[in-house]
Input
Amino acid sequence: MTPNLFLLGAGKSGTTSVWSMLADHPDVHMSRPKEPSFFCSHFQVVKNPVTYFGLFDSPRRWRGDASHVYMTNPETAPILRDLFPEARFVLTLRAPKARAHALYRHMRRFTSGKGTPHEPHERFAAALAAEEARFADPEFPARCGQYAWNFFYCRSCFYDEQLARYLALFPRDRFHVQTLADLSHRPAETATALADFLQIDPGPLIAAATQVRNADPNPYGWTAEEDAWMEARFAGLTARTEALVGRALDWSL
Output
């Protein structure tokens, strides 16, 4: 058995909730660990191919991998196209400013084996200012001790570039796009739309949709300086993303 469903992310946008909703459905088998990240440069949770494919040994209709790194890692899309040409993809997006700040807080909250935060900068502004130097440094992915794109707080929110990579390789009807605001404000409707996309019974998804998991405890708290920085970086981003998706999206969270 091989995976045929991928939750591409975005990270810190509700992917844990979507994974849990799907994992409880009788027609869906989601891998454990949730994010094996096998098809990712410089960062793999599961490295052995036999172990990886063994995660999907299930007779269920959908066998899913929820590694959000597949969305940001540039090399992943063509690999998935070559290995799983019939795969389907679910994207859960979030307002870029809120997601960038939530990712920064995540990297400050979690620590390395030495007890120090993954992100050394105590101020979000300093981490934003460091991003381009990190991105331009070819040694940074090997040196950072984590998934490098988790330190690119703005670039990792460029949903239009990430989605365009996949749309160049897979038909548009293989993608289901929703937002964290959809999950929060319209859980039953959002669960039904996801079930329709996968052609499965919506009942179990609706029952699970009201449970929020892995929520950031303080998603809003950036300064005016940081807001201006992100405003410039994200200019036109949501409109470009909506043009690729083909409809307006709810960016209210």
